[in-house]
Design goal:
By secondary structure, the protein is mostly helical. The chain folds into two domains: about 180 residues, Helix Hairpins, CATH 1.10.287; about 55 residues. The chain is built from five helices and no strands.
Length: about 250
């Protein structure tokens, strides 16, 4: 992933309007779960790319330091060679003096090359440092958005569960309101009254049966008395009269 695409993606994700996305989503919880996954994956990709960018920057900084150190070292060598050449020339040894002067020139050439490399690296390092700073800020923004998304998702899940529970309570209350407990009690009371009436009817029926049996016994006794009196009349006896006190 190039630096431009990293910056573009970080900027896009950080500027994402979470509330607007939630409002337009058919299932906000599923959308937030997907966004959390997308942000998490994007952060992982960005972290890898930024780590590589930082690594390259650190390599350039190391190369820059080596060039600066090399320039200083070649400078010291050039100074030493030049001094030795001057010493030999003063002693009359021109040939060897020229050799050391040539060594000084070679060292100075190396110094100039190292300085040029360091100088050319400076703006690149400065630019890359700015890029790394921007990437770090963008990454921090992504992490902040991820925390916001996670909190928003957790809040939404909790609110959804609460809403479901409230809906269930409302439906239960509504179903209770639709029932008329007094009518149910009345029906139950009617059922009990019918059962009580049935018991009374059975008792009355049993009582009437006993009365009929006793009445039949009384009829038999009466008939027996009549038969006895008839027999007495035929035998010439006087009719039996009922007297008081008997």
């Amino acid at each position: 992933m190039s630096k431009q695409s990293i910056l573009g993606r970080i900027g896009q994700l950080v500027r994402a309007n979470i509330n607007a996305l939630i409002d337009s989503a058919e299932d906000p919880q599923l959308m937030l779960d997907q966004l959390v996954r997308d942000y998490t994956n994007s952060i992982a990709e960005a972290e890898s790319a930024i780590a590589e960018t930082i690594g390259n920057l650190r390599l350039m900084e190391q190369d820059y330091k080596e060039d600066v150190d090399a320039a200083a070292d070649w400078g010291r060598k050039a100074l030493a060679a030049s001094a030795k050449g001057d010493e030999l020339r003063t002693a009359g040894n021109v040939t060897d003096a020229d050799k050391f002067d040539n060594l000084a020139k070679i060292a100075l050439g190396k110094q100039v090359s190292a300085e040029n490399e360091a100088k050319n690296a400076e703006p690149v390092i400065t630019s890359q440092t700015q890029v790394v700073d921007q990437l770090k800020k963008g990454l921090d923004g992504m992490r902040g958005k991820l925390s916001e998304l996670t909190a928003k998702r957790d809040e939404l899940v909790a609110r959804s569960k609460t809403a479901d529970a409230q809906q269930q309570v409302q439906e239960a209350v509504k179903s209770i309101d639709l029932l008329d407990p007094t009518s149910e009690i009345s029906r139950f009371e009617d059922k009990i009254r019918r059962e009580e009436a049935k018991v009374l009817g059975a008792q009355e029926l049993a009582a009437s049966t006993l009365d009929a049996q006793f009445e039949s016994l009384e009829d038999l006794d009466k008939q027996a008395e009549v038969d006895a009196r008839l027999a007495a009349l035929k035998a010439g006896g006087a009719p039996k009269a009922v007297t008081s006190g008997e």
